[in-house]
Amino acid sequence: MPARPALAAAAVAVVLAACDRSPTLATCADHLGGVWQTADGSARWHILDGGERLQAYPLVRELPAMPTGTQAAPSTLDLRRSRGEVVGTVIRRWHRGGEVCVVRAPARIRGCAADRLTLTFGDTGPPTDWTACRVDGPTTAQLLQRTWP
């Protein structure tokens, strides 16, 4: 009879090992797909990794303050892998009456190791110039940790 508890314990260990979803991220060239968030949960992104092209969408409300008469859409990240880097743009659409302004700013993923990466992106707040769809604002950096898968 003592063999059965040992056998059951071994079976449980095998099942738990098979369910281990620990990231194996060593560099930014590795698969970055999944849900990533800041330590406090204030920023959360779902990254879709298609190899050369990556897209990311916010999973928490991240809309900037909107001046009266304007409406902002959630931002998206459109990134590409090129020569060992993951770079691209952060994009946000703004509406003011019948005007539409698509604001684009640089974005980059770097420092990928273990289950963490750093995402930096330019400001996509209210346009300071609606003709050129330009914003003059600071760059944001977020240290993100993969929470799924």
Could you describe the 3D structure shown?
The chain has 149 residues and is mainly β. It has 1 helix and 9 strands; from the N terminus they run αβββββββββ. Strands 1-2-3-5-6-7-8-9 form an 8-stranded antiparallel barrel. The two termini are 39 Å apart.
Name the structural class.
mainly beta
Rounded to an integer in angstroms, the radius of gyration calculated over CA atoms is 21 Å
| Apparent shape | elongated
Number of helices: 1
CA(first)-CA(last) distance:
39 Å
SSE arrangement, N to C? HEEEEEEEEE
Give, in spatial order, the strands making up the sheet with the most strands.
1-2-3-5-6-7-8-9
User: What ranges have pLDDT less than 50 throughout 5 or more consecutive residues?
Assistant: 10-20
Give the overall pLDDT as a whole number: 88
Q: Helix share of residues? A: 10-25%
What share of residues are in beta strands? over 45%
Please report the total strand number as a whole number.
Answer: 9
Largest sheet: 8 strands, antiparallel, barrel
